[in-house]
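Re: your question about DUF2975 domain-containing protein

S., sorry for the slow reply, the queue was backed up all week. Below is exactly what I fed in.
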Amino acid sequence: MKISGKIRRPLWGGLIASAIIGVGIYYLGNLSQYEARELLGKSIPGFNMLCNTVVLASATILALLLTVLGISSTSKSHLSQTHYHQVALLAKWDTIIFIAAITLFQFSNIPITEAENFPKDWYNLLYWATLISSSLLCGGTVAVILMLYNTVTNMIDIVGLGVKDHRLVENESLDEE
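Result:
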């Protein structure tokens, strides 16, 4: 499936957001196992809140997509298959982000910092994994929000403003032939 420019831009936006967060994480430098354990213990509540927020946002976006499909099907304009492919792609990315967030939330609720027999040299790895996964989660969420923005502005143009020569409106003269 070819990704159009309207979809490519949100994906780049998500990638840039992840990169900016990743650069900030990189500048933290190397940590000892003790520092990693302490920072992990302090960052997990924020990570849990991030995961909860992303899960809530993703579920809300999926519900909004059902509304978009309802509006699309009752619109006077005949929308092209490209519109429906973009909505399907948005739903797919949103579902991936939803599953990732809920899975990461579940893993972050394991009380690793309280475990006595957890290998101490793993705290550093776990701390970095938490930071990297949070930056990817943020970038993915930014990409989904930007895709949703494109979908909403397209719907406003087509349904609300009645733009007939929009790239997502099928040419009615072709349908009549």
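Residues 32-161 form one domain. Residues 173-177 have pLDDT under 50 and may be disordered.

Happy to talk it through on Thursday.
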